[in-house]
């Protein structure tokens, strides 16, 4: 059994967690560029000097928040991708998972959008999987694009726009499916088939799958 952290170590862990949580809140509210260290420590209710016991700079804590955000969603995308064989269905499911989570957790959605402005979060989280599945779909003749790099940027731009519409309350209840259908049509899938693939049942969430 690993030794239990001493009181000092526990206090440090608590302070670091409070700083990270405050940074997530502020970025979701106003973006990374507008966030200042003093605001972070005020939001976390810790002394200004305590910040530098944990992070060298604002950039360092933003990078830590970025790493947490990307790692969690990338793991979910990887899990979904591992349960599906059809490249078009994988792409649709990944995009639906982002749009649905933005609807279910607006704070997370705003955090992702406002981090993406300066850090290309969606390209980092989705890029490797999207490129692999896009290439599989094109190689099989199922998907057709004129340029894969432009297709990837187009997919990312559509996803940001759909998430923003959801967060602004301007999207319909089935925004995730409509978005996925649009992405598949962008990638050359027949409209009727794009609609069918975009409405297939999603793999169970990780927590539900584990409980089952």
- The secondary-structure class comes to mainly alpha
CATH homologous group name of the largest domain: Tetracycline Repressor, domain 2
- What composes the largest sheet? none
Q: What would CATH call the class of the largest domain?
A: Mainly Alpha
Radius of gyration based on Cα positions? 20 Å
Give the end-to-end Cα distance, rounded to a whole number of Å: 29 Å
Shape: elongated
- Helical content, roughly? over 70%
| Unreliable sequence segments | 207-212
Number of domains: 2
Mean of pLDDT: 87
Number of strands: 0
Strand content range:
under 5%
Q: Could you say what the CATH architecture of the largest domain is? A: Orthogonal Bundle
Helix tally equals 10
What are the secondary-structure elements, in order, as H or E? HHHHHHHHHH
CATH fold naming of the largest domain: Tetracycline Repressor, domain 2
Provide an overview of this structure.
- The protein is mainly α.
- The chain has 2 domains: 48 residues, Homeodomain-like (Arc Repressor Mutant, subunit A); 135 residues, Tetracycline Repressor, domain 2 (Orthogonal Bundle).
- 73% of the residues lie in helices and 0% in strands.
- It has 10 helices and no strands.
- Helix 8 crosses helix 9.
């Amino acid at each position: 059994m690993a030794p239990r952290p001493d009181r000092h170590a526990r206090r440090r862990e608590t302070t670091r967690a409070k700083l990270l949580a405050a940074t997530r809140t502020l970025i979701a509210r106003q973006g990374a560029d507008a966030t200042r260290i003093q605001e972070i420590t005020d939001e976390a209710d810790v002394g200004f000097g305590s910040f530098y016991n944990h992070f060298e700079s604002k950039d360092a804590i933003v990078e830590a928040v970025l790493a947490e955000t990307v790692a969690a969603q990338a793991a979910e995308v990887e899990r979904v991708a591992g349960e599906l064989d059809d490249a078009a269905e994988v792409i649709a499911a990944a995009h639906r998972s982002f749009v649905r989570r933005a609807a279910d957790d607006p704070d997370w959605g705003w955090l992702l959008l406002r981090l993406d402005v300066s850090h290309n979060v969606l390209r980092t989280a989705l890029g490797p999987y999207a490129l692999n599945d896009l290439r599989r779909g094109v190689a099989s003749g199922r998907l057709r694009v004129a340029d894969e790099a432009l297709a990837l940027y187009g997919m990312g731009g559509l996803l940001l726009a759909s998430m923003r519409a959801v967060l602004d309350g301007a999207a319909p209840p089935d925004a995730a499916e409509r978005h996925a259908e649009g992405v598949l049509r962008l990638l050359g899938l027949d409209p009727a088939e794009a609609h069918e693939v975009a409405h297939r049942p999603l793999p169970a969430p990780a927590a539900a799958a584990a409980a089952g």
